[in-house]
Design goal:
Blueprint lengths: L9 E7 L3 H14 L4 E3 L8 E6 L4 H23 L5 E5 H7 L1 H6 L5 E3 L7 H10 L5 E3 L21 E5 L1 E2 L10 H4 L4 E2 L2 H13 L4 E5 L8 E2 L5 E2 L1 H9 L6 E5 L8 H9 L6 E3 L7 H6 L6 H14 L4 E8 L6 H14 L3 E6 L17 H26 L3 E9 L5 E5 L5 E5 L8 E10 L2 E6 L4 H6 L1
Parallel strand pairs: 1-2, 1-3, 3-4, 4-5, 5-6, 7-10, 10-13, 14-15, 15-16, 19-21
Antiparallel strand pairs: 8-9, 11-12, 17-18, 17-20, 18-19, 20-21
Helix pairs in contact: 8-9, 9-11, 12-13
Bound molecules: S-adenosyl-L-homocysteine (SAH), iron/sulfur cluster (SF4) and FE3-S4 cluster.
Iron/sulfur cluster binds next to helix 6.
């Protein structure tokens, strides 16, 4: 058996489920653990601490957690046979929703903590170290702001990064657990966000995706003491030297205000690719979902966005089989999709979630009908995605080069529309935005060539 030579180093494995906010939170958890001597490991096997950062959004997402906990029991057994101890933590939205219940269902779990309490991780670990076997639950929404307690320094290796600017949600769509798992809407102050972004850029990050469950409801306090909108924040970020690209997700149609739409027209750094979930094309279903807008209002928002930024492409989320949805109402969703044209999309069967208003609504749609509707919607959305990707062939697109490709001399980057782009080139181009001529499409990836560099670019390369 190989002995760890540095007795202060411990290994943590973090498995992340769900949305980008969980990806961000997992990175921040690791940053709080590093000062305690933890290093990341890619495998749960042999780890001293395993954290499952969980998602509660649909039934299948939460089921995964319990099956993973079952699998981990064996790895825990092997670790203790070898004379060690594998601490097991459940974090994220299932932890927030189920709390104590997890300790009852999974006796091998040591810690349960929610998305707003992971800054207390060092205390939880210290207590678990002191009192082996003391099981802990931290799921209150704390009065303190976790961001004030996380290490200021971010540690990131890539050229793209997530940055949470807003959390929680006050919209209470009738199908959704997020307002219960993430709590009420909170915006971080502008200065804290700019500091974090500057730190990321200093480490080589060129593209930042601003995150929030309702990111365009952002209303953080600016340096002038007033509330800033997301559009205004984007303007300030666009001025940071070295930050080439800005994205944001997930936005709500109702919060797509004039300032943000104008920012799309004015800021070349704000990428022309927007995830704007609509869920349904039926006004009656939209009202039952408490989305508080109609299908035509959504169409008008898209028109205004496209007027501001003609090359804007859209993606969206859809739910099929919401309680009471008729064939005719589903057909309205297909019509909306046909009218708008999406570059990519996510579609889900409605999944009743405990404690949400929709879960007790009458007229549940049979599973087989949900499956048929999902298949029909996906067929349409995939055809649109394929058409959009094909439309990129023959175009010259700016590509942010992210990493080496599979073979020597190859590089992979992303187009403005988040498509992976494969080109030949040297590693010194990593971290730069390079114009590429797109030659072909294979499944979801684009293949292209670097367009001639300008003399200035050649001087930098
Ligand atoms: N804040 C975002 C969505 C977050 S959840 C917004 O307002 O649009 C991501 C997606 O999961 C949602 O857009 C929705 O399409 C889907 N979703 C949420 N709850 C669901 C449920 N109970 N059943 C099926 N899909 C659901
Ligand atoms: Fe959920 Fe609706 Fe809030 Fe989005 S806006 S997180 S779907 S409640
Ligand atoms: Fe899932 Fe929580 Fe995100 S429920 S989608 S991980 S906010």
């Amino acid at each position: 058996m190989t002995q760890n030579t540095d007795s202060n180093t411990r290994k943590v494995h973090i498995k992340t489920y769900g949305c980008q906010m969980n990806v961000y939170d997992s990175e921040r958890m690791l940053e709080t653990l590093r000062p305690l001597g933890f290093e990341m490991t890619a495998e749960a096997e042999g780890a001293d601490l395993v954290i499952l950062n969980t998602c509660h959004i649909r039934e299948k997402a939460s089921d995964k957690v319990y099956s993973e906990l079952g699998r981990l029991r064996e790895a825990q057994g092997r670790k203790s046979e070898a004379g060690g101890r594998m601490m097991l933590a459940v974090a994220g939205c299932v932890a927030q929703a189920e709390g104590e219940e997890i300790l009852i269902r999974a006796p091998q779990v040591d810690m349960v903590f929610g998305p707003q309490t992971y800054h207390r991780l060092p205390e939880l670990i210290a207590r678990a170290d002191r009192e082996s076997g003391a099981r802990q639950v931290e799921t209150d929404f704390p009065v303190e702001d976790k961001f004030d307690h996380l290490p200021e320094e971010r540690q990131t290796a890539g050229v793209t990064a997530f940055l949470t600017v807003q959390e929680g949600c006050d919209k209470f769509c009738t199908f959704c657990v997020v307002p219960y798992t993430r709590g009420s809407e909170q915006s971080r102050p502008v200065a804290a966000i700019l500091r974090e972004a500057e730190g990321l850029v200093a480490q080589g990050v060129r593209e930042v995706t601003l995150l929030g469950q309702n990111v365009n409801a952002y209303h953080g306090i600016g340096p002038d003491g007033r509330e800033w909108s997301l559009g205004r924040l984007a303007r300030a970020l666009a001025e940071l030297p070295g930050l080439d690209r800005i994205r944001y997700t997930t936005s709500h149609p109702r919060d797509m205000d004039d300032e943000l739409i104008a920012a799309h027209g004015d800021l070349p750094a704000l990428m022309p690719f927007l995830h704007l979930p609509v869920q349904s094309g039926s006004d009656r279903i939209l009202a039952a979902m408490n989305r508080k807008h109609t299908a035509d209002e959504f169409r008008r928002i898209v028109d205004r966005l496209r007027a501001a930024r003609p090359d804007l492409a859209l993606s969206s989320d859809f739910i099929v089989g919401f309680p009471g949805e008729t064939d005719a109402e589903f057909a309205e969703t297909l019509r909306l999709v046909t009218d708008i044209g999406f570059a990519s999309s996510f579609s889900f069967k409605y999944s009743p979630r405990p404690g949400t208003p929709a879960s007790s609504m009458a007229d549940a749609v049979p599973e087989s009908v949900k499956s048929d509707r999902l298949a029909a919607l996906n067929q349409l959305l995939e055809a649109q995605q394929e058409a959009f990707n094909h439309g990129c062939v023959g175009r010259r697109l700016p590509v942010l080069i992210e990493k080496p490709g599979r073979n020597p001399g190859q590089l992979v980057g992303r187009s403005p529309y988040l498509q992976p782009v494969h080109i030949d080139g040297t590693a010194d181009l990593i971290g730069r935005v390079v114009d590429c001529d797109i030659d072909s499409l294979r499944s979801y990836s684009l293949f292209g060539r670097i367009a001639a560099l300008t003399p200035e670019e050649r001087a930098c390369a």
